[in-house]
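Because discrete structure vocabularies remain unfamiliar, it helps to consider an illustrative case, giving the amino acid sequence and backbone structure tokens:
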Amino acid sequence: MILGLTLISFNLQRLLETAIVYTVLFFERASIKLMIMKNLVAHRESNKLTSIIYSLTLGCIIFVVVAANLQIKELSQYGGNENLDLSVYAKTGNIMTASQIDPVIASYSYNIKQFAYSTQGLTDMY
């Protein structure tokens, strides 16, 4: 979708440049408008590259913001006065100790009412 919108903006660039020049500079003489249009034609290649980079960057930023908002809304469905469960699992052979987890709990202590440690079952060990 980002690539498609970038291609649309790439193809409509010339039309938008002309529309913006005549809309914003309506009070200028025709010679000034003609000079600006010739300047845009002379720098068309660099302008196209700049517009592609700008639109891709803007598209990626919008994508990241939307993804973050979706995650925040998903988490806030459980928010308010209800409890959230946070589980930290360690991969086999990489055991996390309480001293590694405690700084995280301390940094979010204003949101945590209570916590407990749960050990791994003996049948899950091997």
